[in-house]
Specification:
It is a single chain. The protein has one domain. Strand 2 and strand 3 form a beta hairpin. The chain contains 6 helices and 6 strands. The protein has a 6-stranded mixed beta sheet, sandwiched between helices. The longest helix is centred in the middle third of the chain and has 16 residues. By secondary structure, the chain is α+β, with helices and mostly antiparallel strands. Helix 1 packs antiparallel against helix 5 and helix 3 packs antiparallel against helix 4.
Amino acid sequence: MLVAAVAVVVVARQATAPPSLPAGASPPAIPSPAPPTAPVDEATALATRPMLTLPLDAALPHELTTATAGPPITVPRPAPIATRWITDGFPATAEGALGWLTDLNETALRGGDPATYLRAYAESALPHAPAAQGSGLYALLTSFRDRAGIRPGEIKPGLTVTYDVTQGLIKGTAEEGRFAVVCTLGQASFDYQGQTTSMGIGDCQALRWTGTAWRIAPGARAAYAPCAWPGSIESVKAGYRPLIRDGAR
């Protein structure tokens, strides 16, 4: 099942790696200077700024550290509002955005079905947001199902998949706090046919405040998150901090 973790990292690296020339090909001619392009806006620059690259084995269970990347992040309690599959009611703060993404990811990965993730993502994304199929979490689920020979949407007795978020980071905000890039780090556990595999999986999303709730923002996809075992030295190097949940489910 290690291939599932590999898939997430490979997707991230493919998204940022420059294309290579075919064998024997000559470099292209240098074109004439092009007219200046419009500067990248603050939100796009924040979302696409690369994250730390970690080795594949950083995601597997290993020794924890007492070092920290900073004090714990307190995730605020969501306000009581009409019941929704993905909890709304988190405040218009970066910590509120992180709380909302935590609930989205834990809910969407519960059961390990890519179809469930696609539904959760679709219900949580604004028009013109990046496609769910390019998400690292979607790659994780599809890779696991392919490896186990389970079709998307197929129910398998004895299959248990959970994603428990224990750490996170706030990459930054833009547009006076109406745009935030936040990341979750949690333990993804797969239990099937007596075999259990656990790994630390990160996810970063660019979110926009609509005036009433956080949603996945249109525009550029956030750079892929580092995957590390929660509480390890690699998670600290990546900037993840423990989460304290103030009443969020």
